[in-house]
Design brief:
With about 170 residues, the protein is mainly alpha-helical. It has a single domain (about 1-165), classed as Orthogonal Bundle (Arc Repressor Mutant, subunit A). Helix content is about 50%, strand content about 5%. A two-stranded antiparallel ribbon has the order 1-2. Strand 1 (about 70-75) and strand 2 (about 80) form a beta hairpin. Helix 2 (about 20-35) packs across helix 3 and helix 3 (about 45-50) crosses helix 4. The longest helix is centred in the last third of the chain and has 17 residues, at about 120-140. The two termini are about 20 Å apart. Mean pLDDT is about 85; it is low at about 1-15.
């Protein structure tokens, strides 16, 4: 119960945003995870299936390719597929590939920050926020989501009525 209260408290003090780019990347990766073992998927098919702007998706897929999450194949039977099994790719991996660090403050990673005076205790707060975000996003694989098997700790957090409301 205490970790949930801590998470809720951090959420009240810090505003987290999941960008369209990160959301689209995870949705595209989930579609590819669901198609493991099948022919590579064309970007157009992914874009249509997930209602993602095609040009935007191309950039996302390129970032994911550079990040080692997807491989592309040219030709008539070409397209994209995951570079490794979905069970080995976390949501955090996908978000990092397209956005960089999971949590930053003014574009800086929390351990690189320094505060003084009354703000000195702010740094541990940002580090704790980052630890909780990592715990959740690194603890869920593409295969978990694609199979509808979210970990128990995610279900527990999502079942808290306060998680669904905006204070």
């Amino acid at each position: 119960m205490a970790p949930r209260a801590r998470l809720r408290g951090l959420g009240d003090n810090a505003r987290m945003r999941i960008s369209a780019r990160a959301d689209y990347a995870v949705r595209a990766a989930l579609l590819l995870a669901g198609a493991e073992g099948a022919e590579p998927m064309k970007a157009e098919a992914i874009a249509d299936a997930q209602e993602i702007p095609h040009k935007f998706l191309e950039g996302i897929l390129n970032d994911m390719r550079r990040g080692g999450l997807v491989v592309s194949q040219r030709g008539i039977r070409g397209g994209y597929r995951l570079a490794r099994p979905g069970a080995e790719i976390s949501v955090a991996d996908v978000v990092r590939a397209v956005e960089g660090p999971l949590v930053s403050v003014r574009g800086v990673r929390p351990p690189e920050l320094a505060y003084s005076g009354p703000a000195e205790s702010l740094l541990p707060l940002w580090v704790a926020l980052r630890a909780n975000v990592r715990h959740i996003l690194e603890g869920v694989s593409l295969a978990d989501i694609a199979a509808g098997r979210l970990p128990d700790f995610v279900h527990a957090l999502a079942q808290d009525p306060a998680a669904w409301s905006n204070p």
